[in-house]
Amino acid sequence: MKNFLSSIIFRLMVAVAIGILLGKMVGEGFMNIAVTIKYISGQLIFFMVPLIILAFIASSIARMKGNASRMLGWALGLAYVSSVGAAFMALFLGYWFIPLLDISPLSEVLKEVPALVFRLDIPPVMSVMTALVLAVMLGLATVWTKSRIFETLLEHFQKMVLLLINRMLIPVLPFFIAANFCILSYEGSITRQFPVFLNVMGIVLAAHFIWLLLLYLFAGGFAGKNPWQVIRYYGPAYFTAVGTMSSAATLPVALKCAGKSPVLKSEVVEFAVPLLSNIHLCGSILTEVFFVMTVSLMLYGALPAISTMILFIVLLGIFAIGAPGVPGGTVIASLGIVVSVLGFDEAGTALLLTIFALQDSFGTACNITGDGALTLCLSKLDR
Tens of pLDDT along 223-237? Predict the structure, then answer.
């Protein structure tokens, strides 16, 4: 019991509860402070994300030596297949369930959130995608040149970033999550939009867990290991993702969770978890496919043709690999094909963004938890 009370997941649960209660009780004056806390803590978290990606991926690729290129290819392939597979399951569920649902557009206006009291911009030194590409190039170049100096430098850089994660990022996360839920509670997202949330989230959330079950069963069978020895440690990461709504912000906790598993190789964890948090978005893609079908029926009176949806899914899997690991990153990255392939207008894209925002945290949690299954597969392939 004492260990649970001092655990990350307990602190995050307390942060969520405090945030929701404060949002119901406090006035505009306190909300100015809550908005400011969320903004500044979020700035600090997202400043660190490119450094985490650069430190862990580059160092891990360098340690893999001749196996690096092959492991990178497998990671990209597994992420794409998992995401597209989740999308096709959503396609099946959409054609089955959506015509049976009684869904109406959102009509209530949310309470306006006060402005920031104090603004402190901490822009990252580089974008997430720049950090990802730079990390891969540095790691591969270190392997190909067999540079011991750069390999040692990357190892020391990784240790420095790990200390920053444990001593700065992890303590800041509960404040970020508490402020986030305080704002959601204050503006009415949790209560006023609850009926809409229930209409679509019941099916989508069930689909998330079904896909995670299938993913872990496959990974366990492929690796010849018990998948429970991975997923049992992912509770704090799942809960953090629900609170932050961001794969990038959840990355430090996901690394700690995966690192506790006795069946995952540490060098693979340090390479795969930061990489997959940016390219493996199975939960977000599953949700987006289901929601574009819902919005299509709601606004345009019919579900998209199956041939159109297949083309959309194939392209969506590619776009998701380049999507930023921030709230709403998947749907924002794919707006181009939502308009060009599905023919959505401004009303359709606005409604898609609104409904997607309602479940973004759960899609992110599915993404992060699914990374553990793919990491298990990569641990088997690392020879």
Answer: 999 999 999 999 999
